[in-house]
Design goal:
heterodimer; A: about 160 residues; alpha+beta; Alpha-Beta Plaits; 2 domains; five-stranded antiparallel beta sheet; four-stranded antiparallel beta sheet; 9 strands; elongated; B: about 575 residues; alpha/beta; Rossmann fold; 3 domains; six-stranded parallel beta sheet; 20 strands; about 40% helix; globular; binds thiamine diphosphate; binds magnesium ion
C-alpha cells in the first residue's frame, strides 16, 4: 500500500543521503521523494511516498526516527491531508490535434508553458492520481518528455 | 589554539584516558596535539582494524566510550570493519578519522576516501567537520550519541585544514538531547501494568535477556525479577553473564548453538519476557514456527527492535533498568497478595529437559570442549573471556559459564573473525586487574596476529588459548553437514604454516604447544604464572569436532541436530 510520509529534518549537509540510504539499505520501496525548505530555514521537509505493507511501514517510521537529523515523521493519510504534485509534459502536437490537447489541459486546469514547432509543453498540478489520469489522456498524442516533481503534502486543518 | 588541540582538549573534557590509533599525513596535527596531552594515553596498534577492535573491547569491558583514530583514505577504510562490529553490538565507540583538506574534498586527492559516505550504513551517526569552531560541539554530541539510548558507533571526520585552523576554545554546556535525538528511558505506566498482569497469569514463562541488560546496568534488577517470580532465564551470546549461568534458574544460552533445554523452553513457553534482546535470526530459527503459544513482553530502548522480527503483545520502550524497577514495583504487591504464579509443572518439565539434554564434553583425544572447560575450572569461572568467531566461540559460550556482565566479550551481530586478540588488548587495558583469556581460532588469529606486537610492547598478560583445529572449523562443519563433506577451501594445513609457537616467540611473547589432554592443566597453570606479557598456547585439538546442538539454518528452533 502507498503511504505518504512527511519527514521533518535538520537542514544539514548529507541528510538526504542518510534518508535515501536508509530506504535503500532496508529494502523499502520509494515511489517518490521531494525535499524542500520550510517556514523555518534550519528545517527541511521531505515528503516520501513509500509502497509498503503495514508492518514495514512501522519499521520505516521507527528507523527514520532513529536518524539523529530526523526531527519528526508523520504519516499523512489522503483523507487528512492536502497532497499536490506538478507534472511537466511535452507532447507531439500537429495542427489538427492542437485544439484537442489544449482542451484537455484546460479541463485539468493546466497551463501551456511552451509552444514548439511540432509540440506543446504544459504543466498541471494536483493530487498524483489526477496527474496520472492527465498523462493517460495525453499518451495517444505521443508524449515526448515528461517529468513529475513527486508528491508534497501538508496535514489538513 | 588550533582545531587539533581543540579536538584533544574536547576528548579530555569527555573524560577520555585512552585512545587506540595509527597516524598518517592528515592526522599529523592531531598526533602533534596528542603528544602534549597529559591526560590521554595513546596505544599504537599495528593495524587500524586492531585499533577499532581494541577500542571496542575497552568499551565492552568498562562501559566507557572507546576511542580510536586513523588517518584518511586507507586508514579510515581499515577502521570500517571495527566500526561496523561495534555498532552491530551496540557498543559505544567514537572513531576519529583524518580527512584531506576541505578545498580538495571531492577531487580524488591523495589518500582521499568518502569516509562519512562509506561508514554511513554502519554507524549510529557521523560528522564531517566543516567549520573548525564546531569541533567542541561535534565531540560533545558524538559522545552523547555514542553512549546514550541504544549505544553505537559515531565517526568524526576531520579535514586537515580544520585541524590546523585557529579557534577560540570553549566547551559547550552539557547537553542531554538534540532536536532529533531523545531516547525514551521510562516505560509506559499502562504497559507495565498490562505486563505485570500477563506475568501473573503465565504458567510456562521464560525470561530472555540480551546485551541491553549489560548496557543498562540492569543485571541486579533482572536477577531480582527472576528470583521474585522463580522464572527461568536464558540469554543471548551478548547477554552472557547478565544472569549467573551457575544459578539453578539459568538455562544458559539459546539459539543456533544454545542449550537444547533453552530452545525447548522457548518453543513451549506461554510468555516470553524479552529484555534488551532483539530476536535475531540466530536466536529464533525459523520465524513462522517460533514460540507458537507465547505471548511476548518486549522491553527495549530501541523502538525499532520491538515488533521487528517477532510481534510484541506488550511493547515497552525504555531503559531496561528503569523498566524492570517499575515492573518489580508493580509486581511486588500482587505477589504479596496472591503469591507468585504457579509454575511448578513447568519447572518439573524444565528439570527433565536439563537432565535429558545436558551439554557434555566428549571423551578421547584433545577435545576443544575439554580445553574450554579446563580454562573455566582453572580460572574458577572468574576470568574475562574474549573470543574470536567460529566453533571455538560457540564452545566458549557453552562451556565457560559466566556470572557477571562484561565477562564474556565476543563479536555477535557481525561475527567478525580477527576480533579477539585486539579486543583483548582493549579489555586488558580497561580492566587491568582481571585475568583476560583470549580463546582464539587458528583462522581468526591470523586475521590480526600483528597485534601480538602491541600486546608484547604494552606488557599485557593476556592468555591466548588457541583452539587449533587446522580448519575454518565453523565453515567446515556446515560443509560436512550441508555440502556433502566437500571441504572447499576450509583446510588451513595445520603443521605446515604458520608455527604459532614460533610466531609468538618472534613477537617476543611466550609460546607453548599442547597436544595431549593431560598437558592442558599444567600448561594453563604455567601460563597464568607469567605476568610479563602475553602467552600463546597452541592447543592442537581434534580436527573434525562439531558444535552441537545445532539448529540448522532455516530450521525450527526445536529441530536440533545432536540435541
Ligand atoms: C572476517 C570474517 N570472514 C569470514 C567469516 C566467515 N566465518 C565464520 S566462522 C569461520 C571460520 C573460523 O575459523 P577459526 O577462526 O579457525 O575458528 P573455528 O571455527 O575453527 O573454531 C569463517 C571463515 C567471518 N565470520 N568473518
Ligand atoms: Mg579453526
Amino acid at each position: 500500500m502507498k503511504h505518504t510520509l512527511s519527514v521533518l529534518v535538520e537542514n544539514k549537509p548529507g541528510v538526504l543521503a542518510r534518508v535515501a540510504g536508509l530506504f535503500a539499505r532496508r529494502g523499502f520501496n520509494i515511489d517518490s521523494l521531494a525535499v524542500g525548505v520550510t517556514e523555518r530555514p534550519e528545517i527541511s521537509r521531505m515528503t516520501v511516498v513509500v509502497d509498503v505493507e503495514e508492518h514495514s511501514l512501522e519499521q520505516v517510521y521507527k528507523q527514520l526516527n532513529k536518524l539523529v537529523n530526523v526531527i519528526k515523521v508523520v504519516d499523512l493519510p489522503d483523507e487528512n491531508s492536502v497532497q499536490r504534485e506538478l507534472v511537466l509534459v511535452k507532447v507531439k502536437a500537429e495542427a489538427k490535434t492542437r485544439a484537442e490537447i489544449i482542451e484537455i489541459v484546460e479541463i485539468f486546469r493546466g497551463k501551456i508553458v511552451d509552444v514548439g514547432k511540432g509540440s506543446l509543453s504544459m504543466e498541471v498540478t494536483g493530487p498524483s492520481s489526477k496527474l496520472s489520469a492527465f498523462e493517460d489522456l495525453l499518451k495517444p498524442y505521443g508524449v515526448v518528455e515528461l517529468v513529475r516533481t513527486g508528491n508534497i503534502a501538508l496535514p489538513r486543518g | 589554539m588550533n582545531g587539533a588541540q581543540a579536538l584533544i582538549r574536547s576528548l579530555e573534557k569527555e573524560g577520555v584516558e585512552l585512545v587506540f590509533g595509527y597516524p598518517g599525513g592528515v592526522m599529523l596535527p592531531v598526533y602533534d596535539a596528542l603528544f602534549d596531552s597529559k591526560k590521554i594515553n595513546h596505544v599504537l596498534t599495528r593495524h587500524e582494524q586492531g585499533a577499532a577492535h581494541a577500542a571496542d573491547g575497552y568499551a565492552r569491558a568498562t562501559g566507557k566510550v572507546g576511542v580510536c583514530m586513523a588517518t584518511s583514505g586507507p586508514g579510515a577504510t581499515n577502521l570500517v570493519t571495527g566500526i561496523a562490529t561495534a555498532n552491530m553490538d551496540s557498543v559505544p565507540l567514537v572513531a576519529i578519522t583524518g580527512q584531506v583538506g576541505t578545498h580538495v574534498i571531492g577531487t580524488d586527492a591523495f589518500q582521499e576516501a568518502d569516509t562519512t559516505g562509506i561508514t554511513l550504513p554502519v554507524v549510529k551517526h557521523n560528522y564531517l567537520v566543516k567549520d573548525p569552531s564546531d569541533i567542541p560541539q561535534v565531540v560533545q554530541e558524538a559522545f552523547l550519541i555514542a553512549s546514550t539510548g541504544r549505544p553505537g558507533a559515531v565517526v568524526i571526520d576531520m579535514p586537515v585544514d580544520m585541524s590546523r585552523a585557529d579557534i577560540d576554545f570553549k566547551y559547550p554546556e552539557k547537553k542531554t538531547s538534540l532536536p532529533g535525538y531523545k531516547p525514551t528511558t521510562a516505560g509506559h505506566a499502562r504497559q507495565i501494568k498490562v505486563a505485570a498482569r500477563m506475568i501473573m497469569a503465565s504458567r510456562q514463562p521464560v525470561i530472555y535477556a540480551g546485551g541491553g541488560v549489560t548496557t543498562s546496568g540492569a543485571a541486579k534488577e533482572l536477577k531480582e525479577l527472576a528470583l521474585l517470580l522463580d522464572f527461568p532465564v536464558t540469554t543471548t551470546l551478548l547477554g552472557k553473564g547478565v544472569f549467573p549461568e551457575t544459578h539453578r534458574l539459568s538455562l544458559g544460552m539459546l539459539g543456533m548453538h544454545g542449550t537444547s533445554y533453552a530452545n525447548y523452553v522457548m518453543m513451549k513457553t506461554d510468555l516470553i519476557i524479552a529484555v534488551g534482546a532483539r530476536f535475531d535470526d540466530r536466536i529464533t530459527g525459523r520465524l513462522d514456527t517460533f514460540a507458537p503459544d507465547a505471548k511476548v513482553i518486549h522491553i527495549d530502548i530501541d523502538p525499532a527492535e520491538i515488533g521487528k522480527n517477532v510481534p510484541a503483545d506488550v511493547p515497552i520502550v525504555g531503559d531496561a533498568k528503569t523498566v524492570l524497577r517499575e515492573l518489580l514495583g508493580n509486581l511486588a504487591p500482587r505477589i504479596k497478595e496472591s503469591g507468585p504464579p504457579d509454575i511448578k509443572a513447568w519447572q518439573q518439565q524444565i528439570k527433565k529437559w536439563k537432565k535429558e539434554y545436558p551439554l557434555t564434553v566428549p571423551e578421547g583425544g584433545l577435545r576443544p570442549q575439554y580445553v574450554v572447560s579446563e580454562i573455566y575450572r582453572l580460572t574458577k569461572g572468574k576470568a574475562v573471556v574474549v573470543t574470536d568467531v567460529g566453533q571455538h566461540q560457540m564452545w566458549s559460550a557453552q562451556f565457560y559459564k559466566t556470572v557477571r556482565p562484561r565477562q564474556f566479550i565476543s563479536s555477535g551481530g557481525l561475527g567478525t573473525m580477527g576480533f579477539g586478540l585486539p579486543a583483548s588488548i582493549g579489555v586488558k587495558l580497561g580492566v587491568p586487574g582481571e585475568r583476560v583469556i583470549n580463546i582464539a581460532g587458528d583462522g581468526s588469529l591470523q586475521m590480526n596476529s600483528q597485534e601480538l606486537a602491541t600486546a608484547v610492547l604494552n606488557n599485557l598478560d593476556i592468555t591466548i588459548a588457541l583452539i587449533n583445529n587446522g580448519y575454518l572449523g565453523m565453515v567446515r562443519q556446515w560443509q560436512e553437514l550441508f555440502y556433502d563433506k566437500r571441504y572447499s577451501h576450509t583446510h588451513l594445513r595445520r603443521g605446515e604454516s604458520p608455527d604459532f609457537v614460533k610466531l609468538a616467540e618472534a613477537y617476543g611473547a611466550r609460546g607453548m604447544r599442547v597436544t595431549e589432554a593431560d598437558q592442558v592443566e599444567p600448561a594453563l597453570k604455567e601460563a597464568f604464572k607469567i605476568k610479563a606479557g602475553p602467552v600463546l598456547i597452541d592447543f592442537i585439538v581434534e580436527q573434525e569436532e562439531n558444535v552441537f546442538p545445532m539448529v540448522a539454518p532455516g530450521a525450527s528452533l526445536d529441530d536440533m541436530i545432536g540435541g
